[in-house]
Each structure stands twice: as structure tokens, then as C-alpha cells.
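Protein in question reproduced for absentees:

***
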Amino acid sequence: MARWEGNTRGRLERAALDLFTEQGYDRTTVAQIAHRANLTERSFYRWFTDKREALFGGGEELERAFVAAMAGVPDGTGPLATLLAAFATASEVFRPREFLRERAAVIAANPPLQERELIKLASLSRTLTSALVDRGHDEPTARLATDAAMAIFRLAGDRWMAAEDADYAALLSASAADLLTILAEENAPSPQP
């Protein structure tokens, strides 16, 4: 195995995703991932606790980026607007679209990975809710705003992955507008027969 470990994490993530795509998640071992990346298993475990984390290891980076972006939002901004402003910076830390598309396909094909994805999203939601509370919003409002923002975030992300030249911030705004339209429809009086 090579000693050089430049961009080790990225090489391991790419090797894992390629193998998961080629032969399936269950049939892929850590040894195979390390070998494909031209590294040792020891190098793998310096970066990840298990093979699942090769798909989910960037979550902390995203959490930190969002919390840092929230700190830059002016005081007095509403909780949903604060989160959307933070999310608008997400494309700066996103992996390339093709990588994310392949990752989504691998996760969709494997229930244990779907469960892990939900756990990571729940962790992100808790972090964002806590950051909103730290900004002075009450906890129930912060949690509701986070839930709404996460729905917008997922929809914008899906749209971004599907469109090669789409601007993420524009898709985020469009997704927020879609949610607000749905909420307005739900609050409208029911037609009388």
C-alpha cells in the first residue's frame, strides 16, 4: 500500500461509494475500500469508525458550516429565515452532484443506510434547534422552524442534484415558497358544498 495519504478522506469516500455501487453495500468490506483507495485498513480507521461512515462522515462539517452561517444572520431575524440564510451557504460544503446522486442511490437501496441517514438528519436538526434557542427563540418555535427548514432543505437538495446547472440558493428559495404556498392552502377555509 502507498504511504502517501493526500486527500485520504476523499479517496476513501470515493472508493467506498464506487464499491457500494459496483458490488453492493453488504458485500463490501473495509479492507476492499482501503485497497481500492491504495491505503491500509489502519488509514481507513483513522478517518471512519466503520464502512457506513464513509458515506456519512461529512455531517459534522455541514453542521459547523450551518451554525457558523447562523451566527452571521442579524439578530431579530425570525427562526425560519435564519435557517434558510444558513442553508443558502450549503453549496460551499456540498460534495459534487454526481457523488451525491450515487450516494443517494446507494442509501435508497439499503435500509440500514436509510436508518443511518435519518439518524444523521435528526442530529443536524437537534444542532440547528439548539442554535436557534441560543439565539433567543423558544424551544418549541425553534423545533418547528427547524422541522420546516429541514423539509425545505431536503427538497432543494433533491432539486439541486437533479438539475446540472441549477443554483442552490434559487432552489432553496423556490422550495421555501412551495412550502409557504402549501401552508397557505391548508389555512384557507374549506369550500362549502
About this structure: The longest helix spans residues 111-134. The domain at 58-185 is CATH 1.10.357.10 (Tetracycline Repressor; domain 2). Residues 1-5 have pLDDT under 50 and may be disordered. The chain is about 70% helix and 0% strand.
